[in-house]
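Hello again, I could really use a second opinion on something today. I've been staring at a protein lately and its backbone has me curious. Can you walk me through what the tokens say about the fold? Take your time with it, there's no hurry, and the full record follows here:
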Amino acid sequence: MTVSKSQPKPHVEVFVALLVAVILGGCRPGANPQSADGRVAVVATTNLVGDAVSIVGGEHVNVTALMGPGVDPHLYKAKEGDVTRMSRADVIFYGGLHLEGKMVELFEQMRERGRETIAVSDGVPREQLIEPESFGGNYDPHVWFDVALWKQVVHFLGEELARIDEEHADEYRMRAEDYTVQLDSLDAWMKETLSGVPATARVLITSHDAFGYFGRAYGLEVRGLQGISTVSEAGTADVQQLAEMVAERRIPALFVESSVSPRGIEAVRAAVRSRGFEVEIGGSLFSDALGDTDTPEGTYLGMVRHNVRTIANGLTAGD
């Protein structure tokens, strides 16, 4: 499967550039209305990024996430209100590595006009990233599924916030350190929980290829019906090829994702059934977005725990 890399149409680029220029025309860095309460005004693209910034920043940051539960960042297009929020922020944190593929031009415009615009994936050394052949020479952006990599992102956020707001630098670093202790505990729990999945069943099949880092870190083979980005679409041949593998290896479960339509996985299931094997839908996983606010899955820690329980239960069902 390959990723189609469509370029923004010229009139869209012009519109974005003009919109940013108009909105930023009356704003200058350091004079942002949202900073009136003394907190650092942060805009995060995804709620995953927003969660990490909120934890590290604590009471000294005011975080607005542009994308909520169930939103696919690969396909997300910025709205006029998003541009306004970003123009008034002290700093914009985004995933990077083409996660927000349709917002790249906007980030560049913001950066050129003096806004702090930071990709959190810059906290991960490039030699630790996955570079899939199917992603056109780009790195896999889903770094949060390896907790060890997300720890590096958290430390990076602590340092960036300390640089931006020197008055509270020690607090940012301390909060980042405290959070990584929780992440260490999460990582150990994940390894223990997944250790019960039989070797023959350690295959994670999902709607799109978001779990490569998860598979590498925790010892599972990972297959996605779609590619790294959901901009690519799976065809009939992709469905049939995946169904053949599931039926031949008798994989116990397939998994849908909260931010991707389940139609593709349902098609694979039907194709597996036509080959005489009944595969279950093991549950819904959170991939590119957290769950609803005020639920356990609305935090990174809760989202990962939900995913790991769902995967472990689905792949050991009937064992």
User: Anything to note?
Assistant: The longest helix spans residues 169-194. The longest strand covers residues 203-208. The beta strands are 40-44, 61-65, 91-94, 116-119, 203-208, 221-226, 253-257, 280-285.
